[in-house]
Specification:
The structure holds two protein chains of two kinds. Chain A is α+β, with helices and mostly antiparallel strands. Chain A folds into five domains: 81 residues, Alpha-Beta Plaits (2-Layer Sandwich); 71 residues, membrane protein fhac (Ubiquitin-like (UB roll), Roll); 84 residues, no CATH class; 54 residues, no CATH class; 62 residues, no CATH class. Chain A is built from ten helices and 22 strands. Chain A has a five-stranded antiparallel beta sheet with strand order 11-9-15-21-20, covered by helices on one side. In chain A, strands 2-3-1-4 form a four-stranded antiparallel beta sheet. Chain A has a four-stranded antiparallel beta sheet with strand order 10-12-8-22, with no helix packed on it. In chain A, a hairpin with a 2-residue loop joins strand 2 and strand 3. Chain A is elongated and about 135 Å long. Chain B is mainly β. Chain B has a domain of 64 residues: Sandwich (Immunoglobulin-like). Chain B has a six-stranded antiparallel beta sheet with strand order 1-2-6-5-4-3, with no helix packed on it. Chain B is elongated. The chains are: A alpha+beta, B mainly beta. The interface between A and B is medium-sized, with 16 and 14 residues. Strand 2 of chain A pairs antiparallel with strand 5 of chain B, so a sheet runs across the interface.
């Protein structure tokens, strides 16, 4: 549509048919009166078809009378006629108004805040600080002073190294760069012992400072002194040191559980119901009625975010919850089946308690049958790990400097 | 003393004056100005009235003589007091006596 056509559409125009004995005379009079007619086509010897503006049509009656022309409107075109047709359709206008208002609201207000780059700082904390500066969902995007908000957040949040606030449409992107965490250097100024944090069998000792109190192969219980911070040597004399080093020991993790051979199993009936709910601008709208019709059920929830490529529109979250009906059933099982279940469950539970830095050396599963007809299964995980733990030296204890430590005595012998 | 009628073959004194002072002749002489864009569009400025109109020939009263535009599928696309804009396949433009 050209600009000229758009102007004609907005002003409105009519297609009229003029029947006259002298069409040329009609055209000349129209021209003399400066009436806005265009696109004149000849349909017959005494018939013309033309486009005419609404003001021209209002003035054409005397011209028709004078030139004995009969006008017939063939078509009405343009915005004024459309509005006239729609003037009784109030709800259409209300809908249009609501759409315009919705568009205005979603365009000029914050519809989403995306925080990126934060690892130690909680997203909720960032949002809370933004809210203090007037940046929260639904607030106007006009007048957001990024520099001011940045300065305020840098002042309030110690862990922040840099923060960037970008307004893209009606979505705010907050990019966070956190301060680098300073590695904690061991404090060698205070004297300390190394004690056992767990029971175990010593595999190797790498004492970098302090007096070793145990030997490889000996067993220790939690709290035993491994490397002492009190040293008394012939050359250096008595002194307190910051004992440090690694003491690796074989440790054991055990878990025992009873698995009855006759038990109640919870099974799915195969019946399931799916319920959906919408979430937009922190408001949840359930798309279902009534309660879950199952007495026993399990549920799984999936949430998906839907966003249009337009930044100005808020995200829509659709939550899909599937409810699966369950029932209880008495059943019996063989010992081997119970052991399989025990192996899976017990080792899974044990591996959660094993520290990630520990090296797993072995896994064992032993079982006995009880008189009640159950399998008593014991799972054991053997690990190699550093059990040295620092413990402060009581500096005020009275030390008999003449006493000889056991280790020194053994060494001298 | 009676004014001598101009034969139309030689420039009138007004035309000579317009040439001398460098003024647009259609304004000074009040004559028709015909502009063609190829053989598809023709614009007439400073005309008087429409004498005849059909899709094969359009006759226009103008000064000094009436103009006839002949062709096929002729259309008056725009008509104002000062200007006529005609489109179609234009075969001939001539002046009538």
């Amino acid at each position: 549509m050209t600009l000229e056509q758009l102007v004609y559409y907005l002003k409105g125009s009519l297609t009229v048919q003029a029947d006259s004995l002298y069409p040329e005379r009609f055209l000349t009079v129209c021209m003399k009166r400066n009436l806005d007619i265009r696109d004149i086509r000849q349909l017959g010897e005494r018939r013309l078809c033309m486009e005419m503006s609404i003001p021209a049509f209002r003035k054409i009656r005397p011209v028709c009378r004078r030139t004995r022309t009969r006008l017939t409107i063939l078509k009405r075109r343009g915005l004024p006629f459309l509005l006239q047709r729609l003037r009784h359709r109030k709800f259409a206008f209300l809908g249009l108004l609501a759409a315009v208002l919705f568009l205005w609201y979603t365009t000029c207000h914050i519809m989403g805040i995306t925080v990126i780059g934060n690892q130690r700082i909680n997203t909720e904390t960032v949002l809370e600080h933004l809210a203090r500066s007037g940046v929260s969902m639904g607030k106007s995007t006009a007048g957001i002073d990024s520099d001011q908000i940045r300065n305020r957040m840098m002042r309030d949040l110690d862990q922040l190294a840099w923060v960037g606030i970008n307004v893209s449409g009606s979505r705010i992107y907050v990019e966070i760069v956190e301060r680098l965490e300073k590695p904690a250097a061991p404090d060698f100024s205070q004297p300390c012992h190394l004690i056992a944090s767990k029971d175990g069998e010593i595999l190797s000792i790498e004492a970098r400072e302090g007096q070793t109190m145990v030997s490889v192969g000996s067993g220790v219980v939690a709290g035993d002194l491994l490397v002492s911070g009190l040293m008394d040597t012939d050359t250096g004399g008595f002194r307190t040191v910051h004992a440090w080093g690694d003491v690796y020991a074989r440790t054991y993790y055990e878990k025992t559980e009873e698995y009855p051979l006759t038990f109640t199993e919870i099974l799915e009936t195969g019946e399931e119901k799916t319920r959906y709910s919408l979430k937009i601008l922190n408001r949840t709208l359930p798309l279902f009625w009534g309660k879950i019709p199952y007495a026993q059920y399990s549920e799984t929830t999936e949430t998906a975010e839907y966003r249009l490529p337009l930044e100005r529109l808020p995200s829509l979250w659709i939550t899909k919850t599937v409810y699966r009906e369950k029932y209880e059933q008495e059943r019996t099982r063989q010992v081997s089946e119970a052991l399989e279940t025990a192996r899976k469950e017990l080792f899974d539970a044990l591996l959660e308690t094993v520290p990630p830095e520990a090296e797993i050396l072995d896994r064992e599963l032993t079982h006995t049958l009880t008189e009640q007809g159950a399998v008593l299964a014991t799972a054991r995980v053997v690990c190699k790990e550093n059990i040295a733990e620092k413990s402060a030296v009581e500096t005020e204890i009275s030390i008999d400097k003449t006493a000889v430590l056991d280790y020194d005595r053994q060494k001298r012998i | 003393m009676s004014r001598k009628k101009h034969d139309g073959d030689t420039p009138t004194p007004r035309e000579r004056f317009a040439d001398a002072v460098g003024v647009s002749k259609e304004i000074l002489l009040d004559t028709v100005l015909i502009s063609c864009i190829g053989s598809r569009e023709v614009t007439l400025e400073n005309y008087k009235s429409i004498l005849a109109y059909s899709d094969t020939a359009i006759r226009i009263q103008a000064k000094p003589r009436a103009v006839e535009i002949a062709g096929k599928r002729l259309e008056l696309r725009c008509i104002t007091k000062e200007m006529l804009y005609i489109t179609g396949r234009i075969d001939r433009i001539g002046f009538l006596d």
